[in-house]
Specification:
175 residues; mainly alpha; two-stranded antiparallel sheet; globular
C-alpha cells in the first residue's frame, strides 16, 4: 500500500541523511500521493512521521532504522529503494538534491542501514543487480566499487572480486 511505501521512503531518506520533503515524496510516488485519505489520516503513520504541507519529519531516526529492520521484508525495502533511485536518476539534472540522493543510494555504507538483517544477502545482490541497469551506473567506477564492497560484506567473494576488477578497470580508462 501507498502508506507503507511513503513510510519506507521517509525512513530510508532519513537514514541516508537526505531531508525528506513532500515534494520529494511526490516526485517518487506521484502528485496525488498526499491527497489520499489513507496517507493524511493514517494514525499509525502519524505515530512516527509528522507531515505538514511541505515538510516530512521522522520523530526518531532510531525508530526508523528499527522499523525498517523489523517491520518490512527485505524485498519490500529494496523495491522502495529502487523506486527512489530511479526517481533520483530521472531528476538529477533538475536539482542537486537528487544528484546527492543518487550518490547516497549507491553507497553500500548508507544503504546497508536501511536493509533488514533477515534476507540482507539476497537484498544486496537484488538491489545492486537492479541498479546496474541504470545507464550511468554501467560506466561509473564508484558504483562498481560499492557493489563489490556490498558483495564482500555479505560474503559473496566471487561477485566481490569481479566487481572490484570492474571498478578498477573503469577507473583506469577514465584516469
Amino acid at each position: 500500500p501507498l502508506v507503507e511505501k511513503i513510510a519506507i521512503t521517509t525512513f530510508v531518506l532519513t537514514i541516508l541523511n537526505q531531508r525528506p520533503t513532500v515534494s520529494m515524496l511526490t516526485d517518487v510516488w506521484g502528485v496525488d500521493a498526499f491527497e489520499r485519505d489513507s496517507v493524511q489520516n493514517n494514525a499509525g503513520l502519524a505515530n512516527f512521521i509528522d507531515i505538514s504541507r511541505f515538510d516530512v519529519r521522522v520523530r526518531s531516526t532510531a525508530a526508523a532504522e528499527y522499523l525498517l529492520n523489523h517491520f518490512w521484508k527485505a524485498d519490500e525495502v529494496v523495491s522502495v529503494l529502487l523506486e527512489i533511485a530511479h526517481a533520483a536518476d530521472r531528476l538529477y539534472r533538475v536539482s542537486i538534491k537528487y544528484e546527492s540522493l543518487f550518490k547516497a543510494l549507491m553507497k553500500f555504507s548508507s544503504v546497508q542501514h536501511a536493509l533488514p538483517e533477515k534476507g540482507k544477502r539476497d537484498a544486496v545482490v537484488t538491489y545492486y543487480e537492479s541498479l546496474k541497469l541504470i545507464d550511468r551506473c554501467k560506466r561509473y567506477p564508484l558504483f562498481w566499487l560499492q557493489y563489490a564492497i556490498g558483495a564482500l560484506v555479505v560474503g559473496d567473494l566471487t561477485r566481490a572480486s569481479k566487481y572490484f576488477d570492474t571498478s578498477y578497470s573503469l577507473a583506469q580508462t577514465k584516469g
